[in-house]
């Protein structure tokens, strides 16, 4: 588990501050085993807003490139089954949808795998 940090540079600083911070508080309480949790938000210099979240270093793209994802048990028994990843991503997306949130950017880079090979969606909300 790592800490992911990224910044948002708002156009209208004051309006954005309230919007981003208010939205963050709602996202922060949303928890699910298939979602990387939002942890904290901080305001930096020049109006930058830094968002901190749970992060894992292995993406789905990395796992596929390393042949760590397989289609059937006979292909590679030491990797992560693709069906498991697909089902877990669907669980995360379903949970977001139930709360009126659309991920909007599901890619092999926003699907992370934890130390157990379980999928977690990053950069949602």
Features:
alpha+beta; 26% strand; 8 strands; three-stranded antiparallel sheet; 125 residues
Structural class: alpha+beta
Q: Tell me the series of helices and strands, N- to C-terminal.
A: EHEEEHEEHEE
Spatial gap, N to C terminus: 20 Å
Query: Helix proportion of residues, in percent?
Result: 25-40%
Number of DSSP-assigned strands: 8
Number of helices: 3
Extract low-pLDDT stretches: none
- Which of globular, elongated, flat, extended, rod-shaped describes the shape? globular
Proportion of beta-strand residues = 25-35%
Average of per-residue pLDDT values: 81
Describe this structure in words.
The chain has helices spanning 13-28, 60-65, 82-98; strands at 2-8, 38-43, 49-55, 58-59, 69-70, 80-81, 111-113, 119-121. The protein is an alpha+beta fold. Strand 2 and strand 3 form a beta hairpin. The model has no long low-confidence stretch (mean pLDDT 81).
What is the fold's blueprint, element by element?
Elements: E1 2-8, H1 13-28, E2 38-43, E3 49-55, E4 58-59, H2 60-65, E5 69-70, E6 80-81, H3 82-98, E7 111-113, E8 119-121
Parallel strand pairs: 5-6
Antiparallel strand pairs: 1-3, 2-3, 4-7, 7-8
């Amino acid at each position: 588990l790592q800490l992911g940090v990224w910044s948002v540079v708002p156009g209208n600083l004051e309006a954005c501050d309230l919007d981003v911070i208010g939205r963050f508080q709602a996202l922060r309480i949303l928890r699910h085993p298939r979602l990387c949790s939002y942890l904290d938000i901080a305001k930096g210099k020049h109006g930058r807003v830094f968002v901190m979240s749970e992060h894992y270093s292995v993406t789905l793209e990395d796992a596929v490139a390393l042949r760590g994802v397989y289609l059937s048990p006979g292909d590679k028994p030491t990797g992560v089954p693709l069906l498991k990843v697909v089902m877990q991503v669907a669980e995360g997306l379903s949970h977001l949808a139930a709360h009126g949130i659309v991920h909007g950017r599901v890619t092999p880079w926003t699907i992370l795998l934890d130390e157990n090979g379980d999928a977690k969606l990053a950069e949602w909300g």
